[in-house]
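Preliminary data (for renewal application), fe (ii) ion complex.
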Amino acid sequence: MPNQKSKNQLQKLKPRIISWLKENITQKRFNHIVRVSKTAKKYAKKLKLDQYKAELAGWLHDCAKEMTNQQLLRLARKKRIKLDEVDFINPHVLHARVSAVIAKEKFGIRDPDILGGIRCHTLAEPNMSKPVMLLYLADAIEPGRDKKWIQPVIKTLKNEGLEKAVLQAMDQKLSEVIKKGRAIHPFTINARNWLIEKIM
Ligand SMILES: [Fe+2]
Ligand SMILES: [Fe+2]
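Predicted structure:
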């Protein structure tokens, strides 16, 4: 069976991840994580992608979400994550890259689609694979998010495909960032330009 390996990996890791999350993450965040992994699984099936990898990426995507800015910056430096000016203005965005480090080092994840999905779920990056884009989308459209944001994106996903739905979710996030007067990370600008070129 094609997905047997990823199915086994998910089954093996899930109980360990859940107990680790329960110790390191609040219940509210945990509930979000459950919804993201379910959403990722649901749309992976629809898009004919590996549902087990999608679910696993969902389980791990926010594992560093509740670290303090100081902890995130310290870990990022320690792990030699290349930092941009915006990472210093808003270190919280580092939680995605740090979560990918934890997924790799603590849970032994090696799959580039899983690690990439975790790493890119907040800011996105150019050259995202379909499973990576799926996790970005699952985080944006999990049912706990505001309906007025998620419904148009789900409609776009259904009618126009994954790339356009990702672009739409990205633009919604960007409009919020602009409304709040915050800095835009160059990863997102580069990812958006890449998507536009890809869609054209
Ligand atoms: Fe996140
Ligand atoms: Fe999240």
